[in-house]
Amino acid sequence: MPASAELLKLPFAERDVFLDHEQTPEFVRKQLKLLIKRAREQGFAIGIAHPHPVTLKVLKEMLPELRGAVLFTHASQVVALQEG
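RE: above sequence
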């Protein structure tokens, strides 16, 4: 995707963390903590996931922690940050 976007001169952003390619609660929790860490280090981070039951369960469980740690936004705003 980056090569195509660059060729077409389109702004883009890439994911930092894939949250649930292993579908266990422990793995998803670990990935969410990694996403928070990356966001703090870089100033932003993009995480992607599937709507698997385990992913949704862990997201619901960790939502208070996530809300206290990071600001949620749209991916388009992350792209704009990278352009600026």
